[in-house]
């Protein structure tokens, strides 16, 4: 497996790797060296059914540890990655590269499919965002539908299997205001490599969650096969987080919040986390902090790195606890947690779905606005933060508090909680070991093809 070295990319790849190991395959993950000062906190021992561990191999991104902006990083990676990955494969598969039976790459390393093709290795792609995003990007980059432009910035996008998407619901990379050129290039390359070389596109989603868009995309676009949720619902909250679900952490996990959670009433706690990349501005943090105080909700808040010390709530009279990196799946599975305030990253969203925890989504960029739309209007398991009905980057504390209340105990909360309970069951059924769930069956078919059954 070839993974982009970001937390949100490594987690689904590792989790898929663990699934494949449980079917008797051997799994190696190749990724680039991580940024300077960042360690990879790998599970100390593998809990895989076969006793095999996932091996890690590292190749160079050509930057020798230099810190650069994302566009320069992506350029360097696509310039040096193919040669360095090819070398790595030759060094590690001594007889013939085709000893590696199949390569699974994720979308941010689109050239990995070309490397696989040149070495004669069959290739699959793991789509790590919802199938809805796959449909949006595919249709955008292949010019299959009109999207907003500078002259028509408010155009509503109507796609099969999805509710009408307004500008505020679209991923930031398809908007005319997008300033990240690297991502446009990347997605175009990815769809090109996928159509030429991929035999499978697997997705971290499940049929019951996105049935309409899965059916439509598989009919009209390159077929996509859901194999998720890759986080294992049956293991959520059991044992140490890293070992329970196969994830690795780029930051050291602070488990101190677990004992504190044990002392809180069922469904009373608000868990706040914005994933590994997004950071809130001072104004956004201040609104949220005030909302939590005014609402008197006990909370666990992930504030990465040194910013933790700056948050006044860290000494906030026992109402809440601030950690730099939480054992997220364990926190979500804890009976005390009643609401997840999230940026709407897809891993976090699926983890909350698998744990049955309703969400307040405060999306920042990338796929997050679309994920927020799905959570609110398709899955019905949460609300998006708004101010007077409008989407804003900074909302007041009253609006923030209103969104949390809506999920915790407002008039719609029973319906939202009921949907969350139903989807949790469906998530478990899709992947249950020994079962015939849709995702479980798809993984088995994929493995059968790899081993030539
Ligand atoms: N995560 C974690 N501890 C934290 C915050 C996040 O383990 O304190 C994990 C979370 O469980 C998820 C991943 O980091 O698997 C974040 O991925 P996501 O797609 O939600 O967001 P991204 O970081 O890519 O924006």
TrEMBL record:
Entry's Gene Ontology molecular function annotations: anthocyanidin 3-O-glucosyltransferase activity; quercetin 3-O-glucosyltransferase activity; quercetin 7-O-glucosyltransferase activity
SUPFAM superfamilies named in the record: UDP-Glycosyltransferase/glycogen phosphorylase
Cross-referenced Pfam families: UDPGT (PF00201)
Keywords: Glycosyltransferase, Transferase
InterPro entries found in the cross-reference section: UDP_glucos_trans, UDP_glycos_trans_CS
PROSITE patterns: UDPGT
N-terminal signal peptide: none
Alphabetical list of Gene3D superfamilies matching this protein: Glycogen Phosphorylase B
EC nos: 2.4.1.-
Family: Belongs to the UDP-glycosyltransferase family.
Protein name in UniProt: Glycosyltransferase
Organism, as annotated: Linum tenue
């Amino acid at each position: 497996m070839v993974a982009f070295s970001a937390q949100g990319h490594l987690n689904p790849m590792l989790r898929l790797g663990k699934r494949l190991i449980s079917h008797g395959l051997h799994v190696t993950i190749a990724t680039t060296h991580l940024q300077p000062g960042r360690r990879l906190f790998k599970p100390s021992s593998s809990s895989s059914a076969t006793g095999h561990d996932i091996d890690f191999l590292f190749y160079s991104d050509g930057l020798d540890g230099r810190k650069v902006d994302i566009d320069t990083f992506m350029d360097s990676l696509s310039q040096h990655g193919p040669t360095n990955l090819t070398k790595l494969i030759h060094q590690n598969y001594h007889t013939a590269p085709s000893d590696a039976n199949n390569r699974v790459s994720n979308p941010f390393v689109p050239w990995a499919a070309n490397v696989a093709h040149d070495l004669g290795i069959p290739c699959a792609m793991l789509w790590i965002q919802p199938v809805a995003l796959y449909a949006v990007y595919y249709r955008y980059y292949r010019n299959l539908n009109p999207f907003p432009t500078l002259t028509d910035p408010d155009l509503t996008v109507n796609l099969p299997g999805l509710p009408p998407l307004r500008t505020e619901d679209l991923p930031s990379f398809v908007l005319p205001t997008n300033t990240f050129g690297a991502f446009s290039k990347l997605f175009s390359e990815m769809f090109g490599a996928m159509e030429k070389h991929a035999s499978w596109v697997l997705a971290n989603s499940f049929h019951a969650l996105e049935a309409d868009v899965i059916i439509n995309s598989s009919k009209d676009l390159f077929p996509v096969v859901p194999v998720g949720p890759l986080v294992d619902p049956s293991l959520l909250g059991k044992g140490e987080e890293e070992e329970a679900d196969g994830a690795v952490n780029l930051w050291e996990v602070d488990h101190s919040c677990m004992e504190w959670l044990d002392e809180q009433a069922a469904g009373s706690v608000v868990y706040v986390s914005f994933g590994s990349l997004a950071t809130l501005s001072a104004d956004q943090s201040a609104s949220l902090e005030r909302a939590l105080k005014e609402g008197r909700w006990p909370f666990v808040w992930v504030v990465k790195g040194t910013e933790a010390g700056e948050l006044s709530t860290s000494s906030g009279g026992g109402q809440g606890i601030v950690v730099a990196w939480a054992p997220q799946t364990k926190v979500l599975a804890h009976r005390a947690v009643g609401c997840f305030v999230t940026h709407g990253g897809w891993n976090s969203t699926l983890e909350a779905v698998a744990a049955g925890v309703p969400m307040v989504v405060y999306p920042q960029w990338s796929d997050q606005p679309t994920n927020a739309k799905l959570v609110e209007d398709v899955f019905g398991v949460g609300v998006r933060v708004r101010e007077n009905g409008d989407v804003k980057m900074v909302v007041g504390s009253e609006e923030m508090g209103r969104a949390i209340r809506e999920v915790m105990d407002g008039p719609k909360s029973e319906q939202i909680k009921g949907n969350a309970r139903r989807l949790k069951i469906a998530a478990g059924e899709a992947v249950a070991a020994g079962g015939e769930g849709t995702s479980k069956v798809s993984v088995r078919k994929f493995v059968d093809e790899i081993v030539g059954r």
